[in-house]
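Dear colleagues,

For the upcoming journal club I promised to circulate an example of a predicted protein-ligand complex. I picked one with 2P0 because it came up in last month's discussion. The inputs are reproduced below in full, followed by the predicted structure.
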Amino acid sequence: MSSVSNPAQVGTVEATIAAGINIALVKYWGKAPGTDNRPAVGSLSLTLDAPGTVTRVAFDPALAADTFRLNEAEADLRPVTRLLDEVRALAGIATRARVESRNTVPTAAGLASSASGFAALGLAAWQAAGLGRAGDPLDRRLVDLVRRGSGSAPRSLLGGFACIDVETAGVHPVTAAPGLEVSLVVALCADGPKSVSSRDGMALCAETSPYYPAWVESHPADLRAAEAAIGAGDFTALGEVMEHSTMKMHACMLASRPPLRYWAAGTLAALEALVPLRRDGRAYTTMDAGPHVKALCRREDEAAVADALRPVARAVLIARPGPAAHATTWDAGAR
Ligand code: 2P0
């Protein structure tokens, strides 16, 4: 009888995972001291049905080194190998892996894809190494693994609304009241990648913005309000707290030295275009570490919100709540 304890040691084993991007309603901005990429504040997000990432990981004994292709081209292997090394250590294997990834996130437009990317990579590697299967309850080691890649990635392991708790750095689903049917309309407002990475921006803000301590201190109340609004199906309360968390984060960024401004002219144009719908309580906006505007609305208003944004945006995507990261086939892809 073979003494091999893990299937990844005897032949090629592979897994393919699809994960959607997520948009934070209550924002993560700032890191706890230390090197484990733990957040300084919690966060609450919505995982979207699209766009997202599909990743296939194959542990192949014939490989001498890991390989990584993103959208059919060779890509930076270092963050992938870092994550694979952690998985190999946990699984007790040394096998190298072939990793292929397809991003349906328009990366050229600068819409963040690291959350769906690390969620898909982490879960695919996890499953291929025999550490767990799709549908298993979330393993805390998996949450930590993907968080070290990207602080927002644990939220993309879950579908719908997801919350990261600042005390534990764990992630849990937030169940919405049945009547709360929302859409997120994404307006792409500028071209090109962002000038300052989230990591550098967070460090600058924590070191130089006089508003950073207030941001951290006032954060838990926003998180509680958002969780309560989702549970009660209160769209207005949810929209208002999302907007408030967003503007506090950007105020904190703007007060950094030198100022950190992720907005572009197109960002303000999109906000202006939504003023009438905002006045009627039909659309609330959020922006991340980039120029794009995302509008939260009720499902019945998604077409009206998209119509208002189209004249001023480079492109408009209508997204709805999406599933948890899940097994798929490489050919099925993702839209
Ligand atoms: C968020 N952002 O909650 C916030 C709002 C940007 C603004 O999560 O440094 O790329 O890799 O942990 O995951 C930026 O996220 O940051 C982010 P790192 P990450 O969505």
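Two points we might discuss: Residues 182-319 form a domain with the Alpha-Beta Plaits fold (CATH 3.30.70.890). The chain has ten helices and twelve strands.

See you all on Thursday,
B. R.
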